[in-house]
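Need a sequence for this fold. Nothing fancy.
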């Protein structure tokens, strides 16, 4: 363990990694912002990114391993998408459609302007044309989990937290269908 004192934020990151792996979500450690306002964890880091170039090959899936690894440094918690979990990224203007999901899925808020990250079970990586404004983060991508810092002044946060007893996520297509039936149209919505 590092000789540096563990901060509350560091503990929150470690707890987030442990909770994610406890749900069966694969995660990898990401770079992190130091008090010097620089990215740490990888020598060439200039932004949030996995600390290992081979991040896809060995994600952390064991809560004990996550606890040990995130006790070493305040790593960002990066969800490896396409391995049981996909993430739909919705622009801020689609916020009203989230009520169609009736808190059935975890949703995080990120970015400026804000975007909503909707967590779903891995499904085919094909979006219907009517949902072009929705970005699917599937195999080969990662998403920062709250409370990971993504920029100097921005930390991810949960809009709807994953329920403790929520062992299964809704399939991506089910969520897309719910969004479509809530009024998400085709070209007129772009």
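Here you go.
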């Amino acid at each position: 363990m590092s000789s540096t004192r563990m901060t509350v934020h560091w503990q929150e990151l470690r707890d987030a990694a442990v909770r994610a792996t406890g749900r069966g979500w694969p995660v990898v450690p990401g770079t992190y912002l130091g008090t010097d306002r620089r990215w740490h964890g990888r020598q060439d880091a200039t932004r949030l990114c996995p600390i290992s170039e081979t991040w896809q090959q060995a994600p952390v899936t064991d809560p004990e391993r996550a606890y040990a690894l995130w006790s070493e440094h305040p790593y960002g918690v990066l969800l490896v998408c396409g391995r049981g979990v996909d993430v739909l990224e919705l622009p801020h203007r689609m916020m009203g459609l989230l009520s169609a999901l009736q808190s059935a899925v975890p949703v995080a808020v990120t970015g400026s302007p804000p975007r909503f990250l909707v967590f779903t079970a891995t499904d085919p990586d094909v979006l219907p044309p009517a949902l072009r404004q929705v970005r699917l983060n599937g195999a080969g991508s990662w998403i920062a989990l709250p409370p990971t810092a993504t920029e100097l002044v921005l930390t991810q946060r949960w809009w709807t937290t994953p329920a403790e007893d929520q062992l299964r996520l809704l399939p991506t297509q089910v969520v897309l269908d719910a969004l479509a039936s809530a009024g998400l149209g085709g070209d007129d919505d772009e």
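For context: The longest helix spans residues 8-22.
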